[in-house]
Specification:
heterodimer; A: mainly beta; four-stranded antiparallel beta sheet; globular; B: mainly beta; five-stranded mixed beta sheet; about 0% helix
């Protein structure tokens, strides 16, 4: 199993530009999560999907952020327009619902720098 | 908000057992205790989880107190590669959200 795959691994962009982060969850997983990590705020849950449907987006910081999951094998997190304070590591994670608790597997992250 | 309390940092000698404590006094009966770790610049890595009983796998052991208000993660023979931030997380079942909410964790330093 290839694990959760994220792209790009690193991105440097200028303030005001659109940023799109991509995620391929583990095959067969029906939950997908987007997290953001900064030194100041630690790991924050932004949004999560179940069967491609957004369930909880209460962690999305503002309207500049949007996430989609058009199918079971692909999700995007978009920032438009980007700002320097969006600089962070963005993690995608996935899991499969089961009876006895479920492991969430994380990707290696997308390191975003907005200058 | 995170529902757990962990010491911010701990040291451990290489080859010795590392015992990482976690308090979760407000845990509900159907919430699981999960442990993850994050090695610098990598994504969080699952270690172990439990509901009521003690658990053991190839990485670690999880000891949960009978009242479930605290737990201890045990790395039996710590190595330098175990240096990481360890997160203790209380997680509701999926029919109540199932979200993993991370706190600040414990930064474990394994020293030679």
């Amino acid at each position: 199993d290839a694990g959760v795959i994220q792209s790009p691994r690193h991105e440097v962009t200028e303030m005001g530009q659109e940023v799109t982060l991509r995620c391929k969850p583990i095959s067969g997983h029906d939950y997908l999560f987007w997290y953001r990590q900064t030194m100041m705020r630690g790991l924050e849950l932004l949004i999560y999907f179940n069967n491609n449907v957004p369930i909880d987006d209460s962690g999305m910081p503002e309207d500049r952020f949007s996430a989609k999951m058009p199918n079971a094998s692909f999700s995007t997190l978009k920032i438009q327009p980007s700002e320097p304070r969006d600089s962070a590591v963005y993690f995608c994670a996935s899991s499969r619902q089961g009876a006895t608790g479920n492991t969430i597997y994380f990707g290696e992250g997308s390191w975003l720098t907005v200058v | 908000d995170a529902k757990t309390t962990q010491p911010p940092s701990m040291d451990c000698a290489e080859g010795r057992a590392a015992n990482l404590p976690c308090n979760h006094s407000t845990i509900s009966g159907n919430e699981y205790v999960y442990w993850y770790r994050q090695i610098h610049s990598q994504g969080p890595q699952y270690i172990i989880h439990g509901l009521k009983n003690n658990e053991t796998n190839e990485m670690a052991s999880l000891i949960i107190t009978e009242d479930r208000k605290s737990s201890t993660l045990i790395l039996p023979h710590a190595t330098l590669r175990d240096t990481a931030v360890y997160y203790c997380i209380v997680r509701p079942p999926y029919n109540q959200g199932g979200k993993l909410i991370f706190g600040q964790g414990t930064e474990l330093s394994v020293k030679p």
